[in-house]
Amino acid sequence: MSLAHESNVKRIWMVFGLLSIVTIVEVGLGIVKPAILHTTSFLGTSPLNWIFIILTLVKAYYITWTFMHMEGEKKWFRRAVVWTAVFLICYLVTLLLIEGGYLYDTLSPLVRW
Amino acid sequence: MEANIAIPSDGKNTWNGGGVRPFGASYGKMMMWFFILSDALTFSGFLAAYGLTRFKFIDSWPIADEVFTHIPFIHGEYPMYYVAFMTFILIFSSVTMVLAVDAGHKMQKNKVAWYMFATIIGGLIFVGSQAWEWNTFIKGSYGAVKTTDGKILQFARDGKQIALADFVVGDRMDERVQHTRKNGLWWNKADETLPQYSVAQVVASYKADPSIQIRSEEINLDEKQKILLSREKGLAELAKGKMVVEGANLKVNEYGNTIFADFFFFITGFHGFHVFSGIVINIIIFFNVILGTYERRGHYEMVEKVGLYWHFVDLVWVFVFTFFYLV
Predict the structure, then answer these.
(1) pLDDT tens string B94-138
(2) What backbone phi and psi angles, to 5 degrees, belong to B228?
(3) What is the band of B25 on the pLDDT scale with cuts at 50, 70, 90?
(4) Reduced DSSP (H G I as helix, E B as strand, rest coil) percent helix, strand, coil of chain A, to 5
């Protein structure tokens, strides 16, 4: 709450600019799809997908920390919310994606195109 | 009884948790955060299920920027521009929301009201855009044939996908007409819409025009593009044709896997419902601001709490945008 009573207007517009630029970069890359990033593979998916995921997390960080004002909350309140979400989501996504890969390996030989 | 209650709760502050502020956050704000946490887990459950299904069908999943290519009032193909616009609108409405919260801290009633108003308008534009997206998706843009073994066959000329209307000629050959109460069983309501063309008609037109190719669902994983079948292979596949598909619903989907459409309706629908409820809550708070409720209360914390919800809706969209449209 320490920052709550100061005016953050300038910072809000700065973050808006940043989020806009990140979105424009994402959309630009999504339309152009440079072959060197799109058709190569890095750690299980294309580097382009990794760029999208990282930029998404950057946006999520700024929305949560600035707009939702997480930076002004007490440290352990912040951690109670953020760590819980991050841990459970990573756990769920990891298990489900491994399972999806297994389903593909098992079922795709049975499909005749 | 008294011994079990740490703070007397019969005062005016009952709804405020009796004024207790663990971690320096009020009861309402803390509960909003934990609600957001649980809602975030619900959304991540949906998106993770989408990921599982996509990995399961990694060699035939529809390519998103070939599906969402339309802009209102403009013809032609513009992949992603409209979704990008929707993302932008939602981020901007988040900004006006946070400006309202900021003005609330300074007790500037008029500013809070105007920023809340802008936020509501942004939300309405977003929900309207989503309705338009759904409408476009349900109507479809090209049309396809579904085979007896459940594959979707699309059509292409010179490597580019074309619509059924671009090459199908002649008459239906199956004598079918749309069933209405006037020409059929009067006690039956008109059943599902008869597609514009019949399978036999599509097959005949395919045979008649050697420039038409069939585009299968299968993806060439090296080039990340849909595979075009040879004329002979295409005809063999087309012979298995069961029905003509125009558009998408929960049962069939001209763009490919039916479950892609199911996830589209479910995830964007659930998000759209959040936006809708966010708008309703924002409107209630907007009127409270105008009526001076928070001015009399001495603080604008309610604006901050609905602001948290609104930012969360934006946060979820950032992820839906990435995993549905970009990746």
Answers:
(1) 999 999 999 999 999 999 999 999 999 999 999 999 999 999 999
(2) -90, 130
(3) confident
(4) 80, 0, 20
Structure confidence at residue A39 (pLDDT): 86
- CA A2 to chain CA centroid, Å, is 28
ipTM: 0.92
Q: Are B50 and B263 in contact (CB under 8 A)?
A: yes
* CB-CB neighbors (< 8 A) of B307 in chain A: 67-68
Is B94 within 8 Å of B310 (Cβ atoms)?
Answer: yes
Token pair 């409209």 is at which residue? B82
Q: Number of C-alpha atoms within 13 angstroms, CB side, residue B307? A: 30
In chain A, residues with a C-beta closer than 8 Å to the C-beta of B325 are 30
Q: What pLDDT, in 10s, does the model give residues B234-270? A: 999 999 999 999 999 998 999 999 999 999 999 999 9
Q: Which of residues 19-58 of A touch B (CB under 8 A)?
A: 19-20, 23-24, 26-27, 30-31, 38-39, 45, 49, 52-53, 55-56
Tokens of B220: 């060439």
User: B33: Cβ–Cβ under 8 A, 6 or more apart, which residues?
Assistant: A77, A81, B25, B308
Residue (of B243, B226, B95) closest to B164 by Cα position:
B243
Q: How far apart are CA B257 and CA B217, in angstroms?
A: 8
Beta carbons of A73 and B25 less than 8 Å apart = yes
Task: Identify the residue among A54, A68, A113 best suited for mutation to test binding to B, counting B beta carbons within 10 A and taking the highest.
Answer: A68
pLDDT tens figures, B306-316? 999 999 999 99
Q: Which residue has better confidence, B20 or A41?
A: A41
The per-residue pLDDT for B173 is 79
Domains of chain B: 45-140+260-326 (1.20.120.80), 144-246 (no CATH)
Chain A positions touching B236 (Cβ under 8 A) are none
pTM for the full predicted model: 0.89
Query: What Å distances lie between residue B163 and B151, B214, B222, B245, CA to CA?
Result: 17, 12, 26, 11
